[in-house]
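In keeping with the milestone schedule agreed at the kick-off meeting, the structural modelling team has produced records for the first pair of proteins. Each record is given below as a sequence line and a C-alpha cell line. The laboratory manager (R.T.) confirmed that both were archived under the project's standard naming scheme.
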Amino acid sequence: MMRSQVKPSTWDSYARNLRLHVLPHLGDLPLGQITPMRLNRLYADLLGSGKRNGLGGLSAKTTRYIANTIHKVLADAVDAEVLAANPAGRAKAPRPSRVAPIDLHFWTPEQLRRFLEFTQGHRLAGAWRLAATTGMRRGEVLGLRWADLDLEAARLAVRHTVISVAYEIRESTPKNQHARVIDLDPETVSQLRAHHARQQAERAGLGPAFRDGDLVFPRPDGTPIHPHIFSQTFERLVARSGLPRIRLHDLRHTCATIALRAGIPTKVISERLGHASPGFTLRQYAHVIPGMQREAAHQIADLVDRAESA
C-alpha cells in the first residue's frame, strides 16, 4: 500500500486503525501464520469489544473498513512475493446493514436564521453563512482562496481543502478529487465583500507580519485556521445562542434538508454538496422524504380537486 497513492488523511486513518486495532492482535505473528480463521476471530473480537474505552464493540462499518485495510496490506505482501496468497480474501468481514440507521441533526430555516443573526459581527460570520448556504465541508471553507471566488459573477470554485492529519494542518484536494462550482446568493456575496474589507484592515495592521496565503478565512495573521479550532469555535457560539446543539458538519445537513424541502432538484443539491451522485444524496437524506411525500400527495390532490370543480 503505497503512501503516495492515497491522501495524507486516508494514510493516517489506515495507520491509526492498524496501530490501535490490528497490531495488538496480529503484530507478533509471522505473515505466514495470518490465516482466514485468525482474521475471522479478529473481526469477531472487534465487533464484540473493539472500542478502546472498553465500552463495547466497533460497528460493522468500521470493522469492515479495518478488514479492507488489512486486505490492502496483505495484497502488497503478495505483490512483493512475501506471501503466496492473500488470507484476507477468504476471511469473512462483516457487512454493514443495507438500511443503516441515520442519525442526522439539523436546524430549521428559522433556527438557522437566528444563528446567523446571533453571529453577526463575529470575524467568521461569513464562514458560517457560506457553510450553511452552500453545504461546503469544513475543510473546503477553510481552504477557500480569494482566487477561487468571483464575487461579480456570484460564484466560487471548490479546489482546495485544509485538513488535520495527526493534528497537523495539511492542504489537500476536495473529497472526490474534483473541483466544483457553486453559485452564491446576494446576501452571501455582500457578507464576503464586507469580510474582505475587514481582512484587508487586519492585514494593514500587521504589516509584514501578515502571512498572505490568499485564504478567505484564515487566522488574523493570515495562517490557516486549524479545523478542530474552527469546529470548537462554532460549537461555543451555538452553546451561547441557546439553539439546539449541532456540530459544524450539521450545517451541511441543514443546507441539504432545507434545499430538499424547498423542492430544489436532487441533482442540483448533489452537485452543490459535491456528492458522488444524486442517488447518494437521496440515501443520505431519506429522513426528509416521508414529509415531502405527504406534501406532494396534498399538492397533487389539490390540483386534481380544483380541476374537477372548475
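The second protein of the pair:
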Amino acid sequence: MSAIQILPHYNFDDWKIWEGKWELIHGIPYAMSPAPVPKHQIIANALGTEFGIALKNCKTCKAMQPVDYKIADDIVLQPDLLVVCKPILKSYLDFAPSLVAEILSPATALKDRHTKFQIYQQQQIRYYVIISPDNEIAEVFENGESGFQLTGSGNAFNFHFVFAVDCSAYINFAEIWK
C-alpha cells in the first residue's frame, strides 16, 4: 500500500502574508510567476484599453487589470481583466464582477478553461472571455440558465456586452491583436 500524501489547505489569512503574486484555488496555492510574456501583456493592455474607452461615459462600470478577487476563504483569483459595476470597498474584490477575461498561457490554459471556468460560472459572472494569444482567438461565454454558453468566437468579431441599463461596451476583438 502506498503512503497517502497530505496536502496543506491554505486560506485567505495565509494568502495575505505570502510574498509575490499567488492565486488560491480550493486551498491550493498557484504561483503567478514568472511574469506574463510580452505578447500576453500587449493583448491585456489592448483589451483593457478597448473596455476602458467603451466604458468611459459609464458612471458605474469600470474595467480594471488585475485585481485580487476573493471568492471564498480558500479561493482568491487574479483575473487578467475585470469589469466591475459596483464600488470596491475593500483592498480586494469580494463580489462577482460583471465580466472576467483570462489570457491563456501554456502554464494556465487548463486551469483557466476548466477550474476557473467552473468557479466563474458558479459565481454567476455574466461574461467570461478567454483569449488565446497563440492562435489569436477570443471566446465570449455568457452565463444563462444552463451556465456558460459560447456566444462569440473568432479572431475579428464585434460583441456587445451589456452590463447595466446605462453601461454597455461594443468591443471589436480584431483590435486586440494589433
